[in-house]
Amino acid sequence: MSQYLGNRLLQLIPLAIIVTLLIFTIFHVLPGDAAAIFASEGASPETVELIRSRLGLDRPLHVQYLDWVSNLLRGDMGNSFLDDRPVLQVLANRFPATLYLALASMLVTIVIGVPAGVVSAVKQNTIWDRVARIVSLIGLSMPSFWFGLILLLIFSYHLKWLPLGGYGSWKHVILPALALGTTLAATVMRLTRSSVLEVAREDFVRTARAKGLSEPKVIYKHVLRNALIPVITITGLQAGALLGGTVVTETVFRWPGVGFLLYDRMINRDVPFVMGSLFVFAVVLGLINLITDLSYALVDPRIRYS
Question: I need a labelling partner for 268 at 20 to 30 A (CA). Which of 24, 27, 144, 224 fits?
Answer without folding.
Answer: 144
